[in-house]
Write a structure and sequence with these properties.
The chain has 18 helices and 21 strands. By secondary structure, the chain is an alpha+beta fold. Helix 1 runs parallel beside helix 9 (328-343) and helix 7 (295-309) packs across helix 14.
């Protein structure tokens, strides 16, 4: 009830904000924080025509040299240089004499904007196919392949070894599945993209995306999934639903160009796919994603294993505090939606509530997707990508604003601070982040509350007649879920349960706890005490 109340309050606030916004607010414009913003005179031109790139840098400084790189479809390029005027503005003109898709980069120091132009030849014979550009062949990233081989081998050994211990069979299998999904989620990283000549290698690397077109809706960022399939690393196959949920409200509510991709479908249509995917996946598997698939869940589990290595006993929160602590996930989710809508009101309702949210404004430039600026998963993805040579390290370390809270082009100091706090907390409190994760809250909304709970495919059931109330299920639960212990029988799955099945694994009584899929049990508790008598 508390979860539903929190969500209803959040929706009420959003409605009130919208009603207030339509009364009209003064739009503002300005230049905030070091960045470069540019426009192109036309995105669709004929061969031999000129395009003009105009832009400005912030803060405005005269006599600054701006490099504008026109990257041809064959990945060769033309560099133009411009000098800023007294207002920090610049302009360059370039003739485009090669048909195809051009990437255009206005570059200010290590910060750049990204534009494009489609160049066509009106005199070309339409029956003759457009010549294709022969890029260097893809080749494996051998460092990553080696890491994958070692990791999967270690996971397989752990799984096989663990099956000998009746109280670790499910946990060992889960660890192997978690490691395997890491490489499935970021499968594209195994293909080396750095064989493309400079400066094309500075373009966001290729992806191996799933679900880029869903029922006719263009989804260039890939299929939204309810786990941390982080948008920012290259080579992912899916994308975190929270990222898409935020950015399709702000700043990509409208169709058009954004962050290196073309949004053909409107934000409303893309949001429909996001919610549809999340609802479907939540109904089918629920928080199985949290317990078995989410990469950050694996990180939490590895921290727990590290604690056990040092033989440090975990700590528990009081039941009352733990229950309230879990509600934070819904609060964070509501804040994400509220901030995204407030930031995006200029596109949604043609009015600007918060200054600096216009294109080129400070919030647009640095704090789009507000949750991603504090997300503890992003630093891990960026660090991994940099360590295997897929990301220039200076993009993580060079200051882009001169301010403490914006550490580098991809990371904020808040990212690192939250990761440090979460890591420290996870060392003492099992799965600490998972208790307040907004993605977990999003899954729970569409899995454990009516009407979705009535049709959820995965359920944890308890046979009341066989339960002796020994309390093992309560003690071993990593998120301190009490419903499995407290409920008499039947469906004991709660909104806080990760479906990690540790309770099923540790229950010492035959067939008391069961994981049911569409009503059929696939995993049951076993009397492991007999084997040690």
């Amino acid at each position: 009830m508390k979860s539903k109340l929190a969500f209803c309050c959040a929706i009420t606030i959003l409605v009130l904000v919208y009603l207030l916004s339509i009364q009209g607010f003064q739009e503002v414009s300005g230049c905030y924080g070091p960045h470069i913003t540019a426009q192109i005179s036309s995105n669709q031109i004929y061969v031999g025509e000129n395009v003009t790139i105009t832009g400005e840098i912030c803060p405005a400084e005269p006599n600054i040299t701006i490099r504008v790189t026109f990257t041809k479809p064959d990945y060769t390029w033309i560099d133009q240089f411009a000098i800023t005027d007294s207002e920090g503005k610049f302009s360059v003109t370039q003739k485009l004499e090669y048909p195809g898709y051009w990437n255009i980069f206005p570059i200010y120091g290590h910060i750049c904007d990204r534009l494009y132009a489609n160049v066509t030849d009106p005199n070309a014979d339409p029956t003759i196919p457009i010549p294709t550009v022969e890029l260097p062949p893809y080749k494996p990233n051998y460092l990553l392949v080696s890491i994958a081989g070692i990791s999967l081998s270690a996971g397989a050994v752990a799984a096989i070894t663990g099956t000998k211990n009746k109280t670790r069979k499910i946990s060992s299998l889960r660890l192997f599945v978690q490691i395997g999904f890491i490489f499935l989620i970021f499968f594209g990283m195994f293909i080396d993209h750095q064989n493309i000549p400079v400066p094309a290698e500075q373009i966001a690397p290729h992806e191996v995306l799933i679900g880029t077109n869903v029922l006719g809706v263009s989804m260039p960022d890939g299929l939204p999934v309810p786990f941390f399939g982080c948008y920012y690393p290259c080579g992912r196959t899916t994308t975190c639903a929270l990222w898409e949920l935020q950015t399709y409200i702000y700043p990509f509510w409208d169709a058009g160009r954004g962050w290196g991709v073309d949004y053909v479908s409107s934000g409303v249509m893309r949001l429909g796919v996001v919610f549809g995917s999340v609802i479907l996946l939540s109904v089918l598997l629920g928080k199985f994603f949290c317990g078995w698939i989410c990469p950050f869940g694996l990180y939490m589990d590895l921290i727990t294993k590290l604690r056990k290595t040092f033989k440090i006993r975990y700590r528990s929160l009081s039941d009352n505090f733990n229950e309230k602590f879990h509600q934070l996930g819904y609060v964070i989710l509501a804040l994400i939606l509220i901030l995204s809508i407030l930031f995006g009101m200029q596109a949604i309702a043609d009015t600007q509530i918060i200054p600096e949210t216009e294109k080129g404004g400070f919030i647009y430039q640095y704090f789009s997707a507000p949750f991603c600026q504090v997300c503890p998963m992003k630093p891990l993805c960026m660090a991994l990508q940099s360590s295997v040579g897929l990301l220039r390290p200076e993009w993580l370390t060079e200051s882009t604003t001169g301010d403490f809270y914006q550490l580098g082009y991809y990371l904020t100091s808040l990212n690192l601070a939250v990761l440090a706090i979460v890591t420290l907390a996870a060392f003492f409190y099992r799965r600490s982040w998972c208790r307040i994760c907004p993605l977990g809250a999003l899954i729970a909304l569409f899995n454990r509350f009516p009407p979705f709970k009535w049709i959820s495919a995965l359920r944890l059931d308890k046979v009341e007649e066989k339960c002796t109330k020994c309390g093992v299920c309560k003690r071993v639960c990593p998120t301190q879920v009490t419903e499995v212990y407290e409920k008499k029988g039947g469906d004991v799955t709660s909104s806080n349960c990760l479906l990690c099945l540790r309770c099923v694994e540790m229950c010492p009584y035959e067939d008391v706890l069961r994981l049911n899929v569409a009503g059929k049990p696939i995993v049951r508790s076993r009397n492991w005490l007999e084997s040690i008598e």
